[in-house]
UniProtKB/TrEMBL annotation:
Keywords: ATP-binding, Flavoprotein, FMN, Kinase, Nucleotide-binding, Transferase. Its EC number is 2.7.1.26. Belongs to the flavokinase family. This is Riboflavin kinase. It comes from Ascosphaera apis ARSEF 7405. Pathway: Cofactor biosynthesis; FMN biosynthesis; FMN from riboflavin (ATP route): step 1/1. InterPro entries: Riboflavin_kinase, Riboflavin_kinase_bac/euk, Riboflavin_kinase_dom_sf.
Amino acid sequence: MRPDTPRPLVAGPDDGPAPPFPITLFGPVIKGFGRGSKELGVPTANIPPETLEKYPDLPTGVYYGVAALDPQKFHHHSSVTVFPCVLSIGYNPFYKNTLKSIEVHIMRPIDTTSSDSTPSSFFQLPDFYSTPMNLLILGFIRPEYDYVSKEALIDDIKTDCAVAVRSLQRPAYQKYFKQAIETAGFSSEIESQSDSQSKERL
């Protein structure tokens, strides 16, 4: 059950992601349980859990980072294909899932000039099943929790989004957006940079 304690305002160090982050995942968007949008009003895009095979020790929980959708497959009236995101990796104790899932909530582009980080509503894109998605996970927000009600779960997801926005507004994290936009995804240069940063911090 979720502890009754105040939530931190940001997640991760100010000077940039700490090991094991950044973590890169890649996969096509697949159908999930269908509850995020219908029951919670929080649209999610799932990618296959097999993409976690090279990270067997990654804890379940809620993370934040950057999602890049393949511009050749993602068709939207906006030209934006790189977004901030919050993602849940695990079993969702509230629904008592028995299968691990990766559920990604794509958020609206961040306004770095605004101090308002609490979403008034959850961002929604048209369905984009089968679209290849690159994920760059930059930090861990919290473990998975069970909740006394659906409303309590939704409130915590709103807080997750606010924490993610505040965390990603920091300059050391904004550079990952710029690199992803410049490369229309995540290049091998970013992945090798991620590996070298992890080695430097160890």
